C-alpha cells in the first residue's frame, strides 16, 4: 500500500543525506566525471534540482518539462556552477517540491509525467525518492547500491520488475534475491523461463542499468538484455 506522506519523509531524509555528502566536496570535485557517461557531478546535481522543479509542475498541472531540448539545455547550463550554488539549488528546489506536495489535493488523481507517461499522484513521491537515491550513487562519492535503505531497494526492484513485465524484448524471468524475496518480470519475448539470482543490490543495479549483471547467477538461459529506462 502506498503512503505518500511516508514517501515524502523518505525523500527529505534521502535529500539531506545527499546534501551532507556533497557538502564535503570542493569545486574541483563537482566538475569531475560522475558514474553516468558524459555527465559530471555538476550535471547530476543540476538534474536533481531541475527534476524537483519539474515535479512541482506535475503537481500543479503543468507539463513536466517545456520540452526535451529545454530539459537538456537547463542541465547543461547549470553543470559548471561552483559547489555552493549547486548545493543551494538542490536544497531550494527540494523545498519548493516539499511545499507543492503539502498543498491539499486529491492524491488518487492521475498526473502526466515525461514522455506522456501517466501515474497516480500518490506515486510521485516514490519516483522522486528513486531520483535522489540512485543519483546519489551516480555521483561516485562513496554511496553505493549496498548503502541504499533496504525498504527502498525492495520497492525499486518491484517497481522495475513491473516496468519490464510483458516487455516484448524480455523473456519470462524470475528474480530471486539472496534474502528470499522473488519477483517476476518480462514474458513478452520467447525463451525462458529464466531465473536470475543475486543480492538485492546486484539485482537492483542490473535492473536500473547501474551494473552489468556479472555478479548474478542465471539459470534456464542467458541473462536477459534489458531495454533502456
TrEMBL record:
Gene3D superfamilies in UniProt: 3.30.1050.20, dinb family like domain
Mycothiol-dependent maleylpyruvate isomerase metal-binding domain mapped to chain residues: 12-139
GO molecular function: isomerase activity
Pfam families per record: MDMPI_C, MDMPI_N
InterPro entries, per the entry: DinB/YfiT-like (IPR034660), Maleyloyr_isom (IPR017517), MDMPI_C-term_domain (IPR010872), MDMPI_metal-binding (IPR024344), SCP2_sterol-bd_dom_sf (IPR036527)
The keyword Methyltransferase is annotated on this UniProt entry: no
Keywords carried by this UniProt record: Isomerase
Segments of this protein annotated with the region Disordered: 173-195
Presence of keyword Transport: no
Domain MDMPI C-terminal: 147-227
Domain of life: Bacteria
Record NCBIfam families: maleylpyruvate isomerase family mycothiol-dependent enzyme
Listed name of the protein: Maleylpyruvate isomerase family mycothiol-dependent enzyme
Amino acid at each position: 500500500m502506498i503512503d505518500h506522506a511516508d514517501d515524502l519523509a523518505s525523500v527529505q531524509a534521502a535529500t539531506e543525506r545527499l546534501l551532507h555528502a556533497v557538502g564535503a566536496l570542493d569545486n574541483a570535485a563537482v566538475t569531475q566525471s560522475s558514474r553516468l557517461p558524459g555527465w559530471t557531478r555538476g550535471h547530476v546535481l543540476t538534474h536533481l534540482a531541475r527534476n524537483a522543479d519539474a515535479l512541482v509542475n506535475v503537481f500543479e498541472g503543468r507539463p513536466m518539462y517545456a520540452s526535451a531540448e529545454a530539459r537538456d539545455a537547463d542541465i547543461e547550463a547549470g553543470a559548471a556552477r561552483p559547489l555552493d550554488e549547486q548545493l543551494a539549488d538542490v536544497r531550494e528546489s527540494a523545498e519548493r517540491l516539499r511545499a507543492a506536495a503539502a498543498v491539499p489535493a486529491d492524491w488518487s488523481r492521475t498526473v502526466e509525467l515525461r514522455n506522456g507517461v501517466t501515474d497516480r499522484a500518490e506515486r510521485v513521491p516514490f519516483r522522486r525518492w528513486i531520483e535522489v537515491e540512485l543519483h546519489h550513487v551516480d555521483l561516485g562519492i562513496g554511496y553505493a547500491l549496498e548503502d541504499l535503505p533496504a525498504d527502498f531497494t525492495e520497492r525499486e526492484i518491484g517497481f522495475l520488475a513491473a516496468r519490464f513485465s510483458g516487455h516484448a524484448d524480455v523473456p519470462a524471468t524470475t528474480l530471486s534475491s539472496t534474502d528470499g524475496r522473488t519477483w517476476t518480470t518480462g514474458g513478452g519475448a520467447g525463451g525462458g523461463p529464466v531465473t536470475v539470482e543475486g543480492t538485492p543490490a546486484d539485482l537492483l543495479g542490473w535492473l536500473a542499468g547501474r551494473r552489468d549483471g556479472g555478479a548474478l547467477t542465471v539459470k534456464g538461459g542467458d541473462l536477459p538484455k534489458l531495454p533502456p529506462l
